[in-house]
Amino acid sequence: MLVIIVIKQIIVSFFLLIIGAFCYKKDILSAGEGKSISNFILTFVSPALILDACQITYSEELFHNLLWAFGMSGVSFVAAITAAQVLISKRKISYNIERFSLVYTNCGFIGVPLVQALYGDEGVLYMTSYIAMFNILLWTHGVVCMSERMDKKQIVSILKCPTIYAIVIGIFSFCMKITYPEVFGTTIAYVADLNTPLAMIVAGISVMQSDFLGAMRRRRIYVVSFLKLLAIPVMAMLAMSLFPCPAIIQVIIVLATGCPVGASVIMFALRYGKDEIYGAELFAVTTIFSLVTMPVLIALCTI
């Protein structure tokens, strides 16, 4: 049943991606406009989605599962970081790009819509734990991975991220059983509903900006894609099996871990003078491949 839901959501996401690609191809939307939409998503839509999901009715079971989600997010990131260090040799020219890509996924743009389709607001609530861990590590381990040094100023920027604000406010509201006023809550829900269509349209624009066909001729792309989309999520799943965590948490964390390479690899590559073209190719190719691998991961989780 879960596999069917994921396949349907993947098909919907694919059509939305095609719309984004078409709009870019026909000059309806430019690369700059795609970036603006992406900033809008990160600043308003993603936080609204988290705030809306956290309005779910409080229960002890939900709270305990939330703690499990945070702990298992840590386990999955340890598995991903360890695998990246072991499997990607420093002898590779773009080893920084590849190691970063294996750890940091597009969980906000692609993972959240999938989890919402599977489990509704409850699933998104648990996903906030993974997103919180993601942002903390992105601006610490991620910075070190790309720059090979610790940039203390970047660590402070974690606190300026709208998504982090939303997670803190949302979890506080959930734990304290605070309900937003109807007009405010409705507004947040409307903005939250924009997440899936806008995110996939931006993904389509990004895919069209890369040399997708050229990337498909590079053998190394397939190796990294396999590690990112299948091998590391399976490693995370095996690691989580050592703990008595609820099945719903395992599925959500595996999905989040198995999302395609995040657009953050392009931004960080530009910031630290790495190969942003290769980062864009990994982003594009894994986004397309994930349309097939996501249902496979769900099937493995539900065996």
What does this molecule look like?
The protein starts with a helix and ends with a helix. The mean pLDDT is 86. Helix 3 packs parallel to helix 13 and helix 5 packs across helix 13. With 303 residues, the chain is mostly helical. The chain has 15 helices and no strands. Helix content is 79%, strand content 0%.
Secondary structure layout:
Elements: H1 2-25, H2 31-53, H3 60-87, H4 95-103, H5 107-138, H6 141-147, H7 152-156, H8 162-175, H9 182-192, H10 195-209, H11 212-215, H12 219-240, H13 247-257, H14 264-271, H15 276-301
Helix pairs in contact: 1-5, 1-10, 1-15, 2-5, 2-8, 2-9, 2-10, 3-4, 3-5, 3-12, 3-13, 4-6, 4-12, 5-8, 5-10, 5-13, 10-15, 12-13, 12-15, 13-15, 14-15
